[in-house]
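Progress report, Aim 2. The chain analyzed during this reporting quarter is listed below.
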Amino acid sequence: MVPFLNAGRLSAALSYPILIEALRMAFRKGAEAPRRHVHPISPDNDAVLLLMPVWQPERHTGVKIVTVAPRNPQRGLPSVHSMFMLLDSATGAPVCLMDGEELTLRRTAAASALASGYLSRPDSSRLLVIGTGSLAPYMAAAHCTTRPIRTVSVWGRSTEKAAGSADLLRQQFEGSGIRVEVAGELEAAVRQADIITCATTSTTPIVQGAWVQPGTHVDLVGGFRPNMREADDALMCSAAVFVDTWNGALAEAGDLVQPMETGKLQRAALQAELADLCAGRHPGRDNPAQVTLFKSVGAALEDLCAADLAWDHHQGQPID
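Predicted structure tokens for the chain:
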């Protein structure tokens, strides 16, 4: 029987320091990863099916199956359900099934933290988390791994949900000395932040460029379709913009697609993808006053990297 690694096992296997370094190596090495398939399931509720294949011929192949149903929170259910299958590249035989949601949450947060290591100021101490979904605590934990964060603020459209997320973070950071607070007014919170991580399913801009102060790093992870937006045109056109992968971001990120379609943002103005940062082909942040922005839509390479780590941990193999 093919083993199944549940969320608890993945959590134990994929600590952020190890996963971040593994992703750095994976982006340097690369993998074969066709652009993901996106299929509408039901136009009545905006539900979609995502298929993300990836392989490295010398070891493993993987495919992630994801469903996203934005209206699920109204039903008391998560917006995202997912499963990841790891296969042997030589034989095609199934190796392992894994909880795709936990895998995705951890690798998404780790990829943003990896990018932050190149793009945020090394002395960044105030983190603003925008969004109160399942990804929020993962983003906070990963960013706090990379930078000396002392204060985490949480903002959501629902004050009640923001307070709940803040309570979870207080438990998560207990004994660390990190202070967690609920942000009352979004503009003020944005103006005070050194790093802003935004994980929402918004279709209208939330972060306004006029609010973002010099030296801030903005991390946009929520939007994965051309009709989704988390930042306004002013921010997208004034920041030094980096992406996880060109193929994914230029096709799927509304924060890029929309201002490029109107001519406000030029393709030549975009700086680099994450592989360029990891390989040293781009130095990242230029100066302490620069506003940097990382836009990710998710990369199958990240899934395979995390799955390999989890499988090695399950097998009792050493992780370098």
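The longest strand covers residues 47-55. Residues 4-103+301-315 form a domain with the ornithine cyclodeaminase, domain 1 fold (CATH 3.30.1780.10). These observations will guide the mutagenesis work planned for the next reporting period.
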